[in-house]
Design brief:
- The protein has 305 residues and is α/β, with parallel strands linked by helices.
- The protein has two domains: 2-108, ATPase, nucleotide binding domain (Nucleotidyltransferase, domain 5, 2-Layer Sandwich), CATH 3.30.420; 111-289, 2-Layer Sandwich (Nucleotidyltransferase, domain 5), CATH 3.30.420.
- Helix content is 45%, strand content 24%.
- It contains 13 helices and eleven strands.
- It has helices at 43-46, 51-70, 82-86, 90-101, 110-124, 162-169, 177-194, 209-218, 226-229, 236-247, 251-254, 268-282, 294-303, and strands spanning 2-9, 13-22, 25-36, 75-80, 105-107, 131-137, 142-148, 151-158, 203-207, 233-235, 286-289.
- A six-stranded mixed sheet has the order 8-7-6-9-11-10, sandwiched between helices. A five-stranded mixed sheet has the order 3-2-1-4-5, with helices on both faces.
- Strand 6 (131-137) and strand 7 (142-148) form a beta hairpin.
- Helix 5 crosses helix 13, helix 6 (162-169) packs across helix 12 and helix 10 packs antiparallel against helix 12.
Length: 305
C-alpha cells in the first residue's frame, strides 16, 4: 500500500486529504482536515489577493507540507479554484508557493471543479439512477452539476460564493433585513437567469464547507463528526428557521451556535442564503448533505483509477 494526498486551495478554506491506497482503491483515510484562511478576502474591491490573505494561506500550506512529509506521502495533487482563477495577481502567490514550498498548485476551470466534485458525491452517496443536482457553495463561486446516475447532463460554475456575497451585501452587524433581502433579490435574479435544470424536482445534494457546517449546526455538534453529518437531510422550512436564528445575531453572538465553525461565523449567513435561493429555484423541498468534496474526487481520479 502507498500513501497519497490531495489539496484544495479555495477562496475561503484550504483542505488536505491523505489516504492509503492499494490496487482496488482507498484502504484507509489517514487525515481529512481544512483550515479557513480567507484567501479571497477583499477581492471584490480590488480584484487582487491581499498580502495578509496570501500570508495566511501560505502558512497553512507550509504546515500541510510538513504533514505530507510526516505521513510519508508518495505523491500528491494540489488544485486552486475560484479566487485563483480570478485574482489579477494570483501568479505572485502561486510562484511563491512553488518556489518556497515546492508545491505546484494547478488552477482548474469551474467546469472541471464541478466534475471532480460530482465524482466525490457519486462515490460517497448511493444515488442509483436518481436525477440529481449537486451544488458546491464555496467562498468565491458555486458549482452546479446535474446528473442522472453516473451520467453528467450539465455542469457549470457561477461567480457567487459565501465570502463574496458577504462582502458585497451583508455589511452590518447584525445584518439588517434590508441587506439580507437585497442579497436574496440579487440571488433570485441571477439564478433565474443562469440556473436551468434539465430535470423537474431533482434530488438535491449539497457539498463543501457551507453545507457540512449546516449539517453540524443541524445536529448541534460540539465536535464535528463526518459520519453524523454525511447524509443529513435539511428541509427548506428547517433552513428558513436556521437562517432566522443566525440573522438575528451579531457576529460575536453567532460564536455560541453549536456546530458553527468559529472561522465561518461571518460568512455562514450568505452561504445559507445562497442555498435557500437554489432550493427555491430548483423547487427542492430538502437538501442532502455530502461530507465528500473536491479533494475526494481529485484523489479518486488521480490515484484510484
Amino acid at each position: 500500500m502507498e500513501t497519497y494526498a490531495t489539496m484544495d486551495v479555495g477562496s475561503n478554506q484550504v483542505l488536505l486529504y491523505i489516504a492509503k491506497v492499494d490496487g482496488k482503491g482507498i484502504v484507509q483515510t489517514l487525515l481529512d482536515k481544512g483550515e479557513i484562511t480567507k484567501l479571497g478576502e477583499g477581492i471584490n474591491q480590488t480584484g487582487e489577493l491581499k498580502k495578509e490573505a496570501m500570508d495566511r494561506t501560505f502558512n497553512v500550506l507550509k504546515e500541510f507540507k510538513k504533514l505530507l512529509d510526516e505521513y510519508r506521502v508518495k505523491d500528491y495533487r494540489a488544485v486552486g479554484t475560484s479566487v485563483l482563477r480570478e485574482a489579477k495577481n494570483s501568479s505572485v502567490f502561486l510562484n511563491r508557493v512553488k518556489e518556497e514550498l515546492g508545491i505546484e498548485i494547478n488552477v482548474i476551470p469551474g467546469e472541471e471543479e464541478a466534475r471532480l466534485s460530482c465524482l466525490a458525491v457519486i462515490g460517497g452517496l448511493d444515488l442509483g439512477n436518481k436525477k440529481t443536482a449537486v451544488i458546491d457553495i464555496g467562498g468565491g463561486s458555486t458549482e452546479f452539476i446535474f446528473g442522472e446516475g453516473p451520467t453528467i447532463k450539465d455542469r457549470f460554475s457561477l461567480k457567487i460564493g459565501s465570502l463574496k456575497m458577504t462582502e458585497q451585501f451583508l455589511k452590518s452587524d447584525p445584518v439588517t433585513d434590508e441587506e439580507f433581502n437585497s442579497l436574496m433579490d440579487f440571488l433570485k435574479g441571477q439564478f433565474e437567469k443562469d440556473v436551468k435544470s434539465p430535470f423537474d424536482n431533482p434530488y438535491l445534494v449539497g457539498m463543501g464547507g457551507t453545507m457540512t457546517n449546516l449539517g453540524a449546526m443541524y445536529h448541534k455538534l460540539e465536535k464535528y463528526d463526518p459520519n453524523v453529518v454525511h447524509g443529513t437531510e435539511i428541509s427548506l422550512n428547517e433552513l428558513n428557521t436556521m437562517i432566522d436564528g443566525v440573522k438575528s445575531k451579531t457576529i460575536e453572538e453567532r460564536r455560541s451556535i453549536k456546530g458553527l465553525q468559529p472561522k465561518r461565523v461571518e460568512v455562514i449567513l450568505a452561504g445559507m442564503g445562497i442555498l435557500k435561493a437554489i432550493m427555491e429555484r430548483l423547487k427542492a423541498d430538502k437538501v442532502v448533505v455530502s461530507d465528500r468534496g473536491l479533494r475526494h474526487g481529485l484523489f479518486f481520479e488521480s490515484f484510484c483509477s
